[in-house]
Each structure stands twice: as structure tokens, then as C-alpha cells.
Amino acid sequence: MSHLDEGTLHALLDGELDLAEVSEIQKHLGSCVACGSRLQEVKQVLAEADRLVGAMEVPAGAPRARPEPPRSQPSPPPFQPAHEPDAWNEPPVLLVPDPIDAGATRRRWIRGLAVAAALAGVVAGGRLIGSAFKPGHPVLSERDLTSAQPAVPPAVVSPEERKAESTLATRDKQTRLQNRLAAPAPAPKAAPPRQEPDPDSATQLADSDAFAAAADDSITADSLALAGQAAADSSTQVAAAAADSSSVDGNTAPEASESDALATRRAAAAALAELDRERVRQRAAAATAALPPPARPEVQPEAEPAPRPPTLEQRAQIYLRIGLDEAVKQLGGPVHVIEGMTPQFIGLTRTQLIPGTGPARPVVRVVYLDARGRLILLDQQRVATGQTPSLPAGSLRWTIGDVMLYLRGEPGPDVLRNLQARVR
Amino acid sequence: MTADLTQLFEQHYGSLVRMLYRRTGDRDRAEDLAQETFARAVAAPPNNPRPWLFAVALNLVREDGRRNVRQGRRLELLRTETVPSPGPEEEFDRNERSAGVRAALATLSERDREALLLKAEGFNYGEIAATLGLSKGAVGTTLARARRRLVEAYRTEGRGKNVAS
């Protein structure tokens, strides 16, 4: 059989050859060292080429829609709508129920004084209306509300007035309740349409309510005016809070939501990329598992790592494996072999058969394993003309032509002598 | 037929996009071409789907390339990706290596390159032969040459260390 071409070696490693071809090639590789070493080279090239192509991974990124359904849907966010309603849902829950119950308890206690305060309530109502036209409410002036208009008319009583009138009257339950309930209502009006409630504004809303409750506590049986004022305070504070949050959120909220969305998209992209990589890994694993068996006998020798005790080359003390052609060249004539045995390989060894021989005539060693796995070495060395050494008959060293041979190995001398008779 | 097509899509879309990306170096273009390929599969359902799909896709790449040249548009073989990266350094290394391999791949002949990319997608010699219109016997030689030249070109570019490490 002639030498194996590169394409055949690739086909062999790709598992594309049938069993008959593989066994024929294996037979050839057993005797042709040149093809054996080429096979090793091809293995390396193949592995490196696979690695290089495999290095070109499809970059991660937002996946595009597939042909069905057509890719008309824009990639952006199902994320934002999912995020916002939750945020919107919470503040009302916090705002409404709690103060109402507390107020109701207090109101029951207050009711006893309500009759006595009925007349005063009318007077206080009048004052409340009058105070609506007073400018410069201190609470408002403390806040920077340059851009915000209170959602309700400034029906506000200053703290000074509140103190002065604290003895005036108690209040009407329904009016108070209506005022309290009305308090949060203006907030959304004052807020910009796409304002996103954040913890700050929620806190301020709660604060304004707490302020109203605190005012209630301080006056207990106070006048309707105070109640109205507290409610008005509450509403102005809510308006202020809304204005604050609108002025603050107007700048930061959109950026925050954009960066959130970007982060979410990146996370999604990373997750998808990981999914892709996982698919590739699975595919690779499946492809590896599906490798046809003929390739394996060829791959196994390479897969055996160095830690495994001495290789056959090491055991045979070969420093270089050579092909038959090279061996013939080195010996200046045919290589002698043991008839009926298939050599494992041919190589060069440093052992000298003839003392004092120079490197021009190296020892060619043909390596065999017998049926029991014992190593048998047939060394051969070209002898310089006229220097044929005299050797005792029956020795395992002998000459054929101008080549000196030496048969040795792990089997006993009797076995070797039998083999010696078969050397051709 | 729709079910078949869906199955076909599930089985081959990812592989097709990967092959096209390796061929073109442009993820968007790869996806466009893959979708165009499947659109054609809808119009004329193939008998032997995998080689058919990849053959059509590679034809589209060639047509696209010729059109690009005609229109004076720049070839995108070495274009930098603009997709946001998961990790800057890792991504940089990967892009670097990827660009090196793509440059090496660009030195191969069309047929060698395509055979190599199809093999990387798990095609056997019969399928490669069917896709590229080769004889099966020629595939081993084609692949041998393609692999050798790819490795040589990559080493020549001095980027071998990236992959070896």
C-alpha cells in the first residue's frame, strides 16, 4: 500500500471511512512510520482548526424576532409597564386607611363637644373663607414652590391664627372626613402626567398626613377652622410634595427608568447569550457522543497522557521512530524482519552493536511484541566493509551480508533462538 | 407543512446563523440571511433540508457579497461588533481572537472556507458534498487543505498565542 494522503487521514479522523478502509489503513500505519507521524500532525492541525473556527462565537445581543411571527415587534420593553403598576399601586394603600381609623376614634371622643361648638363652627367657617385670600402661607413659603401651583385654592390658616382660634369650636365630622379624603385627591392633578411616584413623594405624602394627624392630636377638641386648616395644610403639603417630586423626578426619574431599562435589557441579553452558549455546549456534547467508533482507535493513543508508565518507544529505548524507507537508507540495504511477525514500529536507538561505530551507521531497531505482550528487539547495524567481527556460533548476534544483527528481548533465549531462525 | 417548517426552524436556525456569522462576521446580516433562507424554504419546501438550507444561505452570502462590491459598500468581514458586551475584557479578547480567525479564514478559497464552516456545524462528508456540489471523495482533501491553510494563516498573523493560551 502506498503512503496515505492527507485527505484520507482527515477522513479517518473525521470518522468518514468504513471499517474495511480503516483496518487497511491501520495495517499500513503499523508498518509505515512516516504515515504514523503524519497522522499525528494531521491530528494537531485538525484540532487547532476546530478550535479556531469554534472561537468565532456569535456575539451576544438582544435577540431579534424570528421569521414567524415576522420580526415587526420592536425589541424594547415589556419591562417598564410591568414595573410601573406595582409602584403606582402602593401609595394609596399607605395613604388612605390608616389615618381615617385613627381620626374616627378621635372624632367619637370629640362628638360630645360638638353641640357646644356648633355656633362657633359657623364663625370659624367664615374665617376660613376669609383666610383664603391671605397671601404668604408660612408652610408654603418655606418650600420652594416657584414652579408649582397649589392644586387647591390657598384656603389656609397660619399657625398664629390657628393658636388664636384654638378655643373657638369643635368640628363637624362629615366636613372633616370630606376634607381629609379630599386631601390626597389634588396630588395627581398637580403632578405631571407621566410622573412616577417614588419613595420620596410617598414619604412626603405620608408626612403630610401625619402632620394633619399631629395637628388633630394637639388640638383634640378644636375648632372646625382648625380641622379645615389641617385638611388644607394637608392638601397644600400634598400639592407641595407633588410639586417637589415633579421638580425632582422631572429631572431624574426618566434617566433612572432609562438606565433601569438598559440594565434589564443587558441582563436579558446576557442571559440569552448564556443560553446560546449552553446550546452550543449541548450540541458539542451531542456531536462528541455521536462520533463514529472507527475514529476512536486512532484517537486513543494520543489521548493516553504521559503519566501512564513507559510507552512502547520508551520501553524499546527508541529515540526516533523512522519509516521503512529511512531504515533501508540507514542500513544501505533491506531491513531484516522476523518472518510471520508484524513489527510495532521501527526506530533508531543509541545502543551500539559494534563498539566504536560512528553516527554514520546508526542502529536500526525493529520492535515486536509477541502474543504475550513481551518485547522483542531486532537490532541491525551496517558493518564497515572488511570489519565483519567473528562471532561464536549459536549467539544471538550474527551477521547477514554486511549487516550485523542482534536479537534480544523479554522472552527466554530458547524462544529468541527460535525466532532467530525466522529472521530474513 | 407549517409544523414541519417550525421543526426545521427550531433544528437549524441557530446553526445557520452561527455559520453565517462566521462566514460574514456580521451578526445582523447573518440573521437577515438566515431569515431570507427560511423564507425561501417556505416557498419551496426542500426534500433534504439541511444541505438545502445551507446551500441557499451560502448562495445568498455570495450574492450579497457581489452586490456589496458592485455598490461600493465596504465588506463587513472584519467589522467590529456594535452589540453591547457582557464583560469588556472577556469580550475584547474574544473579539480579538475572532477577528484573527476571520482574517485567516478570509485567506482561504471560497470552497475551502465553506467546507470548513459546514464541518464545524456537524455536517458529514456526504452532506458537505451535497451542499457544495462536490464529490464525496473530494471532501477529505478539501477539508485537509482548508484546515491546514487556516492554521498556517492564523499562525502567520502571529495570533496563535491567543488561542493556544
Mind explaining what this structure looks like?
The complex is a heterodimer of chains A (424) and B (165). Chain A has helices spanning 6-13, 19-31, 33-54, 79-95, 97-114, 118-131, 138-142, 159-164, 173-182, 186-190, 199-219, 224-289, 295-303, 312-315, 324-331, 413-420; strands at 320-322, 345-349, 363-369, 375-382, 397-400, 403-409. Chain A is α+β, with helices and mostly antiparallel strands. Among the domains of chain A are: 79-265, no CATH class; 312-420, Phosphorylase Kinase, domain 1 (2-Layer Sandwich). In chain A, strands 1-2-3-4-6-5 form a six-stranded antiparallel β-sheet. The longest helix of chain A is centred in the middle third of the chain and has 66 residues, at 224-289. Chain A is elongated and about 145 Å long. The relative contact order of chain A is 0.10. Mean pLDDT of chain A is 65; it is low at 69-100, 135-158, 163-175 and 180-254. Chain B has 165 residues and is an all-alpha fold. Chain B has two domains: 1-83, no CATH class; 86-165, Winged helix-like DNA-binding domain superfamily/Winged helix DNA-binding domain (Arc Repressor Mutant, subunit A, Orthogonal Bundle), CATH 1.10.10. In chain B, 76% of the residues lie in helices and 0% in strands. Chain B contains eight helices and no strands. The relative contact order of chain B is 0.11. The model of chain B is unreliable at 74-85 (pLDDT under 50). At the A-B interface, helix 1, helix 3 and helix 12 of A face helix 1, helix 2, helix 4, helix 5 and helix 7 of B.
